[in-house]
Amino acid sequence: MGTAYGTFVQFATVLLLWRPTSAFQTLASRTLGSHQTQSRLYSTNINTSFMWNAGLAYGKGSFAFYRNFNDMMKVFPDEDRQAYPEIFNFPKGVYEVRLSKPLGIVFEEIETGRGLYVQDLVEGGNAEREGTIRPGDVLVGMSAVKIVGAKYERRMIPARNFDFDTMVGAVNSNDPKWSCDDVMIMVERPGEADSIKVDQFMSFFEPPIDNPWKQPQ
């Protein structure tokens, strides 16, 4: 199946209640203020291309393996945190959750082929025990692994437009063979979050158009 992030492997499974075995086969301190290429983020001049690797650099560097948001942002100096607080803090109503597989989440498409929300939580499952995610939450980000040759990266990828198969492929890509013992999920809570601000925040995680993450496998 072709997507904006390359060709995702599809799995004939349902509702993320299993423990997957296959991988998702497609998928130094810097200051933000020193980069002047126009970005979509809050109408500021921020270029995040230095966070994305290609060629021989793919799979290397501080941003090549996403653990969580705070870990990703720790390489930036305090001056950036003061200058761009909207980038270093989650928007209201956005929650990041670390879950082991199986997730214990029943996702349902908001529209056919576009967007997912939490329809239910499996009683006693990992998501219910963790306690953050609620029915009705909207999926806006998910960690995924992309392999290029003999190298791989794990990134947080904007997921508001994921369909069900793309989400399943992303979940399955977080496999122990790629040093993954969890899946990182970001959700938006309707009634708390401003979707426009959430999308602006999530654009920080968008790969450049010429990056391997945007290319078909």
Automatic annotation (TrEMBL):
Annotated ranges, domain PDZ: 103-154
Keywords of the record: Signal
Pfam families to which the protein is assigned, alphabetical: PDZ
SUPFAM superfamilies in alphabetical order: PDZ domain-like
Cleavable signal peptide: 1-23
Protein name: PDZ domain-containing protein
Organism in which the protein naturally occurs: Fistulifera solaris (Oleaginous diatom)
